[in-house]
Design a protein that fits this description.
With 723 residues, this protein is α/β, with parallel strands linked by helices. It contains 23 helices and 23 strands. Strand 4 and strand 5 form a beta hairpin. The longest helix is centred in the middle third of the chain and has 39 residues.
Length: 723
């Protein structure tokens, strides 16, 4: 049944749209056959399911694809007796609908590829769909009874995944056409990487334009201080106008950088859920085939990662999940005898920390029998008898990754050939990563993959403590609420929040970062419920700025071991945002400060510079306080003592040389080591700073290269401080 050539482009777009709709329908069907949904939730799912099927039928018919319209119509007929149901969907009906969706998608892709005239008549397939479905009067009776899957081997779901060639088509965009429609360009990874570097250069240019604008405004201020002379009036007006235009240009450049980065991200990355959601169907079908019950939960599917990485990981995840269902989970009867729920729990967790990606695949099954692993390895010649005596339990568990290893004595459709976990390890190592296995017999098994990533973004919640912006991984933020007196328990040393029947310790982010003394939360202050490793705290912040989808990059090598930070991201205007480690926030022991710790005061009107200097000094064991101006630094010095001051040379209210003069005039701070930092790397600027009484001088480029800590220690040593 050929398609009108004039409609061929529309058919290709319809195939992409249909894939998206069918994925939603599949997820709804898997939810409908599970227990525990109330009647309201069931009703909404049935209504949404009917709406999606009707959309597929109407769209197909409008394009003259009558075979697809007939399939969708038969699926509506199978659903019709259940529309008013308040029970879960019988598995036999789910089988029919899933089989029909597979058939619909295969034929839709064939039409999109121009192969519609070669398709067989769908009459036989439609007759089989009708035959497989239960009679309307049997639907209610079979709601709780298990049924065998359809005898027909289900074809693959959906159309092929997007090509790694970055052709620009997106399955999330109904207007985008697949590669077969020849609407995109093939772009090499090297070209994309080069373009990303150019965007980074554009960001630097924008920052320089902004800096030039500030310098121009300072010139206008200097002229104004000289008096409103008629000779300078025209110059002041021109300079003020130029400064306004520069601000406008800077804002427009910032918008362009944002748009370019979003476009590049759309081309080079894709949401993790695009490979994880289809695995729900695979787990369901395999469980039924083996007579087991399993439910897959996915955490972190909203992350976006490098398309090439995801495509290479998909096979490894399939192997791990098949292994978990086949080898890990027990039969329902055995699980109930062991005191477990008859339905096995599988979990896929995805988390990105800096340039590292963590993928965890866990099950609550029988666990790995170490003694049996050793016996099988010896029987298959993978392990010498005396070698097993020298291996501990962890090393014995690692034998499951050996080529040829399998605990199955016979070969089945799902296992027994000894190539599953061996292939997983090979795939992970080919991506420069590693895989580890942990298991407790009778409780379950957990595989953790750690991989480096160059591209990708993570959802981050941006919060503020005083004037410091901090990022928190959204995966760690469980909830947010405002502090209320009736839910707080204020003790002598610590405050607790009553939350879901528990008392959670309240941690003040500002105090935790050393910006201020700890204090109980004020009425109405935002509190974030942060969890990590099974621990939870109520994190008090001054403001919640909002959530962002950001690329988290690793810190420089010199500061990568600082326990508080997992990486850094760049905000739209070029500001550096440090991303806090949730495990550091919830760890009690790390909230205490060593009495003899060296103390540093960083004075800079740039938030980015303050954050970077602080990270580097904390890596050297310093307790760091921050000040955004010279006046604020003098206030700090009235109440606190420091071992060293790091100060920006060029600040608006009081520059670095003026601050040094004030410090040298006071007996308490006359010998306090001061290091000046400046964006200017000229000999004249260096001489000016040292002549003003600075003990050291660094350009900000030298600081970014990791020179700050060494200079601080050197200056303190010369001054006789605690270096």
């Amino acid at each position: 049944m050929p398609v009108d050539p004039m409609l061929q482009g529309l058919v290709a777009g319809f195939a992409v749209e249909a894939q998206e709709v069918i994925q939603k329908v599949t997820m709804d069907l898997l939810e409908l056959e599970r227990e525990g949904l109330d009647s309201t939730a069931l009703s909404k799912l049935y209504v949404r399911l009917g709406r999606h099927l009707h959309t597929l039928k109407g769209s197909a018919s409008s394009l003259g694809l009558q075979d697809l319209g007939d399939i969708a119509h038969k699926l509506e007929d199978a659903l019709a007796p259940l529309k008013a149901s308040t029970q879960k969907m019988p598995r036999s009906v789910v089988d029919v609908l899933l089989h029909g969706l597979d058939l619909f998608m295969l034929r839709a892709q064939a039409h999109a590829d121009g192969r519609g005239d070669a398709l067989p008549d769908p009459a036989a397939a439609l007759a089989q769909l009708v035959a497989e479905g239960p009679a309307p009067d049997q639907v209610g009776a079979s709601a709780g009874a298990p049924s065998r899957p359809a005898a027909v081997e289900p074809p693959p779901v959906g159309v092929p995944e997007e090509s790694a060639s970055l052709d620009g088509a997106s399955a999330m965009n109904p207007d985008a056409l697949p590669e077969s429609a020849d609407t995109g360009w093939r772009v090499g990874a090297r070209q994309v990487t080069s373009l990303m570097r150019e965007v980074e250069r554009l960001r630097e240019v924008r920052l320089r334009v902004e800096e030039r604008g500030r310098e121009l405004e300072r010139v206008v201020t200097v002229l104004a201080k000289q008096g409103l002379l008629a000779e300078t009036a025209e110059a002041r007006t021109l300079l003020a106008g130029t400064a306004r235009l520069l601000r406008t240009d800077s804002e427009e450049t910032s918008d362009i950088v944002d748009a370019l980065e979003e476009g590049l991200k759309a081309i080079t990355t894709r949401p993790v859920r695009t490979i994880l959601d289809p695995l729900q169907r695979m787990v369901r079908d395999l469980s039924r085939q083996l007579g087991k019950e399993a439910r897959l939960s996915v955490v972190g599917s909203e992350l976006s990662l490098d398309r090439r990485l995801l495509e290479k990981l998909q096979g490894a995840l399939v192997h791990l999940l098949r292994n978990a269902v086949d080898h890990g989970l027990e039969m329902p009867v055995a699980r109930e005898k062991a005191g477990k729920h008859h339905e096995g729990a599988l979990t896929l967790r995805v988390e990105q920390q800096g340039n590292l990606l963590f993928l965890e695949c866990a099950d609550d099954g029988a666990g790995i029998d170490v003694a049996r692993v050793r016996k099988v390895a010896e029987s298959r010649g993978l392990l010498a008898a005396d070698e097993g005596d020298r291996l501990n339990d962890n090393q014995l568990r690692d034998l499951v990754f050996r080529p040829g290893f399998s605990t199955r004595s016979d070969v089945t459709d799902t296992s027994g050939r000894g190539v599953g976990l061996d292939a997983v390890r090979a795939s992970v190592e080919a991506l420069q990563g590693r895989i580890e296995v942990n298991s407790t017999q009778g409780q379950g098994t957990r595989f953790v993959m750690t991989l480096p990533v160059d591209l990708g973004s993570s959802p981050v919640l941006v919060v503020r403590a005083l004037e410091q912006l901090v990022g928190l991984p959204m995966l760690a933020v469980e909830a947010t609420q405002l502090a209320r007196a009736d839910s707080l328990r204020i003790g002598k040393r610590k405050a607790h929040l009553e939350y879901q029947g528990q008392l959670l310790p309240v941690v003040d982010l500002g105090a935790r970062l050393g910006l201020r003394a700890a204090a109980p939360p004020a009425e109405g202050q935002p509190l974030l419920i942060v969890q990590s490793g099974g621990k939870r705290v109520a994190l008090g912040v001054d403001a919640v700025v909002g959530d962002r989808d950001l690329v988290i990059r690793p810190l420089p090598l010199e500061v990568r071991d600082v326990p508080a930070w997992q990486g850094a991201a760049t905000l739209s205007r070029g500001e550096l945002l440090l991303i806090c480690r949730p495990d550091w926030l919830v760890t009690e022991s790390s909230q205490t400060t060593v009495a003899a710790q060296r103390r540093a005061l960083v004075v800079d009107d740039s938030l980015t510079a303050r954050a970077l200097h602080r990270a580097m000094l904390e890596a050297g064991g310093f307790s760091v306080h921050l000040a955004a101006s010279g006046a604020r630094a003098l206030e700090r010095l009235q109440t606190d003592t420091y071992d060293v001051v790091i100060c920006d040379l060029d600040m608006e209210e009081m520059d670095g040389t003026q601050l040094i003069a004030r410090l040298r005039d006071k007996r308490e701070t006359a010998s306090l080591p001061v290091i000046l930092v400046s964006a200017h790397d000229s000999a004249a600027a260096r001489e000016r700073g040292l002549a003003a009484g600075a003990d050291g001088y660094l350009s900000k480029r030298e600081c970014a290269a990791g020179r700050l800590l060494a200079e601080v220690l050197d200056v303190m040593s010369r001054r006789g401080g605690r270096a």
